[in-house]
Amino acid sequence: MEQGLESYEDEDTVEDRFDDVVAVLSDCPTFSSTDETGAKTDFTLAALSFPKLGDDTVALAITGTTPDFTIKINVAIVRLGRNVMSVTQGGLTADAAVLEQASRTGLDKLAAATG
Fold it and tell me: How many H helices and E strands in the chain?
């Protein structure tokens, strides 16, 4: 589990950046990556059923496939005002309920700190 937080000077900037991220993720549902040893991983992105939290929410299920194993990562990106929180959860398995619980907890703390 990993959580990140970014704050911007104004809400318009963060809305534009949030929309840009959503567009890139929608336009590029598959990609590949090769590490320094030459091992290739193919990634597939799909929308993840997830409630709307904060002002905007996007959630993804990412699957990475190598010749040896498959990894699953769920990501939620939530905007609250001029702040953007990301929560990532996964490994060999990923659990959307765990991601939602962590996202709600993080959003509650963010709302309390910025409210």
Answer: 2, 6
Query: pLDDT digit of tens for each residue in the chain (115 aa)?
Result: 999 999 988 888 888 888 888 888 888 899 999 999 999 999 999 999 999 999 999 999 999 999 999 999 999 999 999 999 999 999 999 999 999 999 999 999 999 998 7
pTM, to two decimals: 0.89
**Is 80 domain-assigned?**
yes
Report how many domains make up the chain: 1
Q: Look at residue 88 and tell me if it is in a domain.
A: yes
